[in-house]
Amino acid sequence: MKRTRSVLVLCAGLFLFAVEPAAAQNSINDQLIGDLNNVLLYAAIPITLLVQAILIYAVFKFRNNDEPRPTQENRRLEITWTVATAIVLLFVGLASYQVMADPFITHQYDDEPGPDDVEIEVVAFNYGWEFNYENEDISVGAEEPVIPTDTEVYFDVTADEEQNSYIHGFHVPDLGLKQDANPGQHHMVKTEVYNEGEYQGYCSKYCGVGHSNMYFTITAVDDGEYQDWVEEQQAENGDEEAAEEEEMMDEAAEEEEAAAEEEEAAEDAQAAEEEEAAGEEDEPGDEGEDGEDTGDE
Question: What CATH architecture is 118-236?
Answer without folding.
Answer: Sandwich (2.60)
